[in-house]
Specification:
Blueprint (H helix, E strand, L loop, with lengths): L4 E9 L7 H13 L6 E8 L15 E7 L2 H9 L1 H11 L8 E8 L9
Antiparallel strand pairs: 1-3, 1-4, 2-3
Helix pairs in contact: 1-3
């Protein structure tokens, strides 16, 4: 069986310390609503963490979002889609304490043993 090639769009966010729980909740809901954009396979958003047994490698980034898309063409559709622009401009950017880091890459999906459980 051939592995499926996908595009991953990863964004690291530094949310302002004074952002309210409600603002963060709305931001998360907005990000998750982007699943409706054509070509989006999966989408996740969450708060970063560091356990006591691991070094804190967050470098001030408090939240991360990840969007898996079916192709580079789908990434272009996603970036330009009015829903994405609105969520970014109205729910993400106003919460930021600094510039985000965004990166895209293409890879094959290989499922680990735990995926079959």
């Amino acid at each position: 069986m051939d592995n499926k090639t996908v595009i991953d769009h990863i964004v690291l966010l530094k949310v302002r310390p004074d952002a309210t729980e409600d603002e963060i909740r709305r931001m998360r809901q907005g990000v998750l609503s982007l699943k409706a954009i054509p070509g989006v396979l999966t989408i996740t958003v969450g708060e970063t963490f560091a356990e006591e047994w691991m070094p804190d490698r967050r470098n001030g980034f408090t939240h991360t979002l990840s969007v898996r898309l079916e192709s580079k063409d789908a990434l272009k559709v996603y970036q330009d889609h009015p829903m994405h622009v609105t969520v970014k401009d109205e729910l993400i950017v106003p919460l930021l304490a600094g510039p985000p880091i965004a990166i895209d890459y293409e890879s094959e999906v290989v499922l680990g043993d735990a995926a079959s459980k």
